[in-house]
Sequence to fold (642 residues):
Amino acid sequence: MSLLTDAKVVKQMELAPHYYRLVLSAPATARAAGPGQFLHVRCGETLEPLLRRPLSIHAVNRERGELALLYRVAGRGTALLAKKKGGDTISIMGPLGRGYTMPSAPERVAVVAGGIGIAPLYFLLQETGARGQSALVFWGTSTKEQFFRPARPVWDLKGTKGRYLSIVQEIRAQGHQIVLATDDGSAGFHGTVTDLFERYLNNPSGREEILSLYGEASTTSGQIKTDREAGGGPGAGLNFYQNPESETFARVYGCGPGVMMKELCRIIGTHKIPGEISLEERMGCGVGACLACACKTREGDQGGFRYSRVCVEGPVFPAGEVIWDD
Amino acid sequence: MTENDPGRTAGKKPDLSVNIGKLRMKNPVTTASGTFGFGLEYAPYLDLNRLGAIVVKGTTLQPRPGNPTPRLVETPAGILNSIGLQNPGVDRLIGEYLPYLAQYDLPVIVNIAGDTVEDYAELAGKLDRAEGVAALEVNISCPNVKKGGMQFGSDPYMAAEVTRAVRGNTDKPVIVKLSPNVASIAAVAVEVAAAGADALSMINTLLGMAIDVRRRRPLLGNVMGGLSGPAIRPVAVRAVWQVYREVDLPIIGMGGIVTAEDALEFILAGATAVAVGTASFINPRAALEVLEGIEQYLVENQVEAIGELVGAAHRA
Fold:
């Protein structure tokens, strides 16, 4: 079910230069939303820029009837959106598209995010964390500032009341384990997140080391301990990665730039792990009518292809379905 | 009559119905082909029954995969697209989409496109026999396919030949969609009218392109594309104005209509009906809001029937 709604801005925070977290009040939309789905957002009031902007849903609080977006200012539309303040109204359509398939409860899952690709995966982690299922998260950015500065969480997280948390800390507070990579080596693993992920998969005996070297402690924002680290607290009873050496993933979830998604598909294809990735494409209508946001997907078993609509058949696709042209 | 004439007091609904050849529409607002899919995509956002008609996505004999990506570029107050007539083919249209649309009280106009004159004739024949087709819109003006398409639309005699081929295979109203990418749109309109068209729709997109200055390459996968949106509205209004003076056929006017005021410009220039296109991407309810605005304009200006306004700017 998708709705066209005038959502009220609850608040907006700048988490790093050009990166914003926007909280909207839209109860019916929040209730219907699932991880991986997106909103088609009217950023301005005029005909310039003309089109809505597709932004993935970053987090949801169904009791409060609120949902959050996490986005980078990339052009005129998002620059206008960044100016919105509490009390303003924004026209949104959604939730739209096909999201991630939620893992079945006992499954071990990995989440691989590139840069702002963490936005929809955070929602997935919020949902799996809420039912006590922990994931191993690999998050890579170009530099450490893009893991964002600690801020007041959008909504209070259990056991962290009043604290300022970075997104990395929020993810941990929800019961997940996270390792980081940066292109410039300023935090975590020095290299791409897909390289780190592949090393982890390829080298079982080195996994403990990866988890300890590139976990939260490797970032400068890691000084604040969550309740879990202090012993007890929200995630204490969760089934954490006790024995990473023998661990395999039942499923991998990805979101990030195209080149990274292509690489991720290669890696999980090699390891024969099923996965789902979220794609981005220039979008017109957002409802499957205009056929602008096409991506090549496999058709039949004769090596054929078709153009699928990212807005309707996606934005999340099974990793093996997407065809990557060079 | 005076303002106090009892026949014109508030409460009396103006007559919004229009005729496009034999096709009677309960109001003059329809959707531009390619911008409204098969209607079902927009059903969650508006009551399709309220529209005067819908024009579905351009249909070809065989399914088409469409053009390489990127297919869309945002330009000042407009968009460039090169979808390449991606569509499931006429057989699936007849087998799946028309039966779905039959649940609505909504005339369905099918936009057809081909590579050859024979393609158009065959499409017309198939759709003439199909249930649930109110009229055919003949796409002789799509800028995004290599063969046919605009090549037919840019030559008045080729345009006439395609029109005759369609006319010869159907009794349904034949609406020919004209391209603005010609020296004289009126000259094409005159030939198409003589070849038996019942109505004209205009305008299709303007051929354009955009370049990524960082990569130093065209932004569209297909290099060139069709420009639509508010940016092209003055061109479209001018085209309707010119054709209205030369040809005595009903016109469905389109090109950048976002508001009722925009639509009224087309009607005053000579359009009998209007189509909302790109605006549906921004506001899925745009077509209904245009309709409501037209009705309000008629009430406020005490116009009894929309027909009174058609071409009224010529008579000022």
